[in-house]
Amino acid sequence: MSDLSKQPLRSTLEHIGELESDVSSTIRNLARIPYPRIRFNLEIAGKNYKAGLDAVRRVLTEYLLTRAQQFATLPQPGTGKTQTVDEILRKYWGRQLNMSYHIAEGFRTNFALEAGANIPFELYFLVFDIFKEFNFEETLVFRPADQFKSETFEETILEPLDSILQVGKQTILPGTLEQPPVPRDLRTEIQLKPANAIWYVSGEAHNPILWPLIIHESFHLLDNRLGLFQEMESLMGSTKKLPVLDPAKIEQVNKKWSKEIFQDIAAVHYFGPMYAFSLMNYFERLPYIRSVEHPEMSSRLYAVNKYLQTAHSQHTDYLTRALSFCKPLITRELARYEQSGELSDEVKTELDMFYDAVASWLRSRRITLFTDRLARYVAQGSRAREMVDKQIIDRVPYVDPIFTFDEVVDLVFTKKVSLALDPTLLLNVVLAVSDKYTPQGYSERLVDCMYKCRVKQAWDLALSSIKA
Ligand SMILES: [Zn+2]
Questions:
Q1: How many A from CA of 58 to the centre of ligand 1?
Q2: How do residues 315-339 score in pLDDT, each as one tens digit?
Q3: Last residue in a domain, options 315, 338, 372
Q4: pTM above the 0.85 mark?
């Protein structure tokens, strides 16, 4: 008998130990990340993965191995012989052992991806800014993947573990009259800190045209945690119903589709008109298909187009210029859907009603939407003159004068100046000239602008706390 069979699962358990030290060393290496807040968020994710790995070990030792050892002492019906622990593990729990290996590897892989993500760190702050609007403080990490998606750490860690435990519960060993001991509920035992991951398409991390889609995922995430959709639904009252986009589909499918359009409407109001362009662009790159999760593209574009048709602001020309760029593109696309009969009048009526409901929920939430950010920018910028006049420029936060749309384009693309402009304002300007300039080639400059904006915000905050 080899050593290995005297110590069942030894190699697997040893490997889980290796994975744990891998995660620990990745946590130590986070020190290279210049942003304490991002570092802290990743550290919490790492600790969650360590808790997950510990749980895999406990499933193997405390649950499967202990049970196998108990059954190994029982004589088999008919033969009266006993079985070895190894035989029992292989015969009855081979699948669970195999799954646990993959789950443990998956935890380590996820964390390595998150900690080494190639996404610009500044994009984290796009999400943190929305979190702040909802007073939401849970952990966030970005995970490079093959699609955009949001996921809670309960889904990342507990769901795969549940799948082992569920299968384990159903196994009743032959020759035993007793029911197998029910495994303890690991869900309540694993101490997970509330955390969330936003998946982003890894190959598009440096393509600014798709950055606005992160806003859509942020709303998904907040909806998951705070029940935003439900809140909106209850605000609709009993007289109005969620849109039925396809009467042939069951209610749950139509509801899922409504949720998707809900995120789109929230995202376009929050981010601004260029979200519509981003959405259309993504689904040209990744040919769109309707699924249980995602309604027809025509419905989504129709809903965001309603924003383009109704949005207005007197502040600067950013909104009007961005609208004049993307409205014709979306209108042309919608006309195609109408001609092909894909977008019917019935669907349009349903979406019109729904759009109004979501828009009024957004207003009731009093979050800072794109047009509010424009107003704030103009209000701050108009103080630039006053500061020069009063010669108090070194005693107040630094303020740029208000730049027009063309001035921003000229400064960023021609004069190569990184402006400390709010990222959503900046992107609504620069993406609207993406036919002339290739933002992909400019992603570093845009990141630099975003970085400067963060520095300015930190500076403002520091000064205002001194004054207070
Ligand atoms: Zn979505």
A1: 35
A2: 899 999 999 999 999 999 999 999 9
A3: 372
A4: yes
